[in-house]
Design goal:
Layout (H helix, E strand, L loop, with lengths): L10 H7 L4 E6 L15 H9 L1 E12 L5 H12 L4 E8 L3 E7 L7 H9 L3 H7 L5 H6 L1 E3 L1 H8 L11 H14 L9 H4 L15 H21 L3 H14 L4 H20 L3 H14 L4 H13 L3 H14 L4 H13 L3 H14 L4 H13 L3 H14 L4 H13 L3 H14 L4 H13 L3 H14 L4 H9 L3
Parallel strand pairs: 1-2
Antiparallel strand pairs: 2-4, 3-4, 3-5
Helix pairs in contact: 3-7, 10-11, 10-12, 11-12, 12-13, 13-14, 14-15, 15-16, 16-17, 16-18, 17-18, 18-19, 18-20, 19-20, 20-21, 20-22, 21-22, 22-23, 23-24
Length: 471
């Protein structure tokens, strides 16, 4: 983009010495416990940013909220608010990352204006691709404005160049986090101060925004319950949030993760009914969650409930066509049950979404051989070889196909190639010995067998062939 002018240097010095004014200045330094980073959280630096803004301009600074003491978060807010008369806090990830945005003037928040801006230049798509959701997720990330921030900062002192308060205090938070000591900033510190109504937005409020706002606040309550170990209440909150807005980014991020964790604990204790109930509740709230269907399929497979497992895997693959494990597990179930046509259709469906996926190609080629469709199998294996000529599995599959048809010379070629890729595989050596034996090259067969037995001395098949060859 010709509009980009990248300068590599000291950002603080650039802001202090630049004669240019900016619409937006964003500061996103590294973690505060790293030496020198606190210099980008001082009153003096924020004052330089303010002086370099155009009328109506904004300055934004990232706040690392994890492994940071409560008093340090309060100091950052007090320092920033001491410079900018109008400040708002936004939540990038609850209890992890926050953004303070400051300005000389009140900061209007107009949903219609935000929607219009996101519609331009592919911004909405970029926001979605980055996992930030849409305009409703963005607006639901608002935490508080001046009044709430004043209350949160309390009487905390400012961080200045002279006192270097954060330079020495912030590293303690890292060690407090490692030792699980109290005093660290947490989501609960915002709970009573967080804005609960949408009265901060200008203009009419869409019903969709109301739903998004309610969903996000229920999800945040769920996060608090989760971190207290109150899992039942957390699940109840997330399920309620999903009813308001299932696409909320925090619902989709945390609800499945918590359900999976609890289900895994139940499975370790062989509480299969409990695990299934967790998956069912999740999928009732988020019916299009592919990983949820896949996990449920794993449970059915564990219980040998093959029809239910196949249904769950198929649902996962339909929702997310590039979800390879779903296609692989479904194909394996059909193969195990000798439903070869259905297995072939499963792998083909996966290859429509991922035409160069070697696992799918190898499995499809193997199925063709199992159906005596030799030419179809060879074509698929050659397709895989064109994608990756170093994949030992493809060389082995081709060698095995020719070996089964007693085309020993061709088998030798492919099995020798497989061994070049995977020289420590005893089974490949055994197959190659069989191919040599088929062409009457007994001496070569014996040499390869010796290598197979060296790699796997207890291999009974290799021992038996060695005896047959007179060793």
């Amino acid at each position: 983009d010709p509009r980009l002018n990248m300068l590599v240097g000291d950002g603080r010095n650039h802001v202090a010495l630049s004669r240019r004014n900016y619409d937006v200045i964003i500061s996103q330094p590294s973690n505060l416990w790293i030496a020198g980073m606190a210099d980008l959280f001082t009153s003096e630096f924020f004052q330089s940013c303010r002086q370099n803004l155009k009328p109506g301009g904004l300055t934004a600074t990232w706040i690392q909220a994890y492994a940071l003491q409560q008093q340090d978060v309060q100091t950052i807010i007090a320092t920033f608010k001491g410079v900018f008369p109008h400040v708002a806090m936004w939540e990038l990830m609850p209890s992890v990352d926050y953004l303070l945005i400051g300005s000389e003037d009140p900061i209007p928040i107009d949903p219609a204006q935000i929607e219009a801006r996101l519609a331009a230049n592919g911004l909405r798509q970029a926001l979605s691709q980055n996992g930030a959701g849409d305009e409703f997720d963005l607006l639901s990330s608002y935490v508080m404005g001046n009044q709430g921030l004043d209350d949160l900062a309390g009487e905390a002192p400012a961080n200045t160049d002279d006192n270097a308060r954060l330079e020495f205090s912030a590293p303690r938070g890292l060690y407090l986090d490692l030792s699980r000591t109290e005093g660290l900033f947490s989501l609960e510190d915002l709970a009573d101060r967080r804005r609960t109504e949408l009265d901060f937005v200008e203009g009419p409020v869409q019903p969709a925004l109301v739903k998004a706002w309610r969903a996000r606040h229920l999800a945040l309550d769920g996060l608090i319950h989760e971190r207290r170990g109150e899992y039942a209440r957390a699940l109840t909150n997330f399920a309620a949030a999903a009813r308001w807005r299932p696409q909320d980014i925090e619902v989709r991020r945390v609800y499945p993760e918590l359900s999976f964790k609890l289900a895994e604990n139940a499975l370790r204790r062989r509480r299969f009914t409990q695990a299934q109930a967790l998956y069912d509740s999740l999928l009732a709230a988020l019916p299009e969650h592919a990983a949820g269907h896949y996990r449920k399929g794993e449970l059915h497979e564990l219980l040998q409930e093959w029809d239910d497992a196949a249904h769950s895997y198929q649902r996962a693959g339909t929702i997310a066509p590039t979800f390879t494990p779903a296609h692989m597990r479904l194909g394996a179930i059909h193969t195990r049950r000798r439903k070869f046509d259905q297995a072939i259709e499963t792998y083909r469906r996966g290859l429509e979404a991922m035409p160069k996926h070697l696992d799918l190609l190898n499995n499809l080629g193997t199925l063709y051989l199992m159906q005596d469709r030799f030419e179809d199998g060879l074509a698929v294996f050659h397709q895989a070889l064109a994608i990756d000529s170093t994949d030992a599995r493809v060389w082995n599959n081709l060698g095995t196909a020719f070996l089964q048809r007693r085309q020993y010379v061709e088998a030798q070629h492919w099995l020798e190639g497989a061994i070049r890729q995977r020289p420590t595989d005893a089974t490949l050596h055994l197959k190659l010995a069989d191919a040599y034996r088929g062409t009457g090259a007994i001496a070569q067969a014996r040499e390869v067998l010796k290598q197979a037995l060296k790699l796997s001395p207890d291999d009974e098949r290799a021992r038996r062939m060695s005896r047959q060859l007179g060793d």
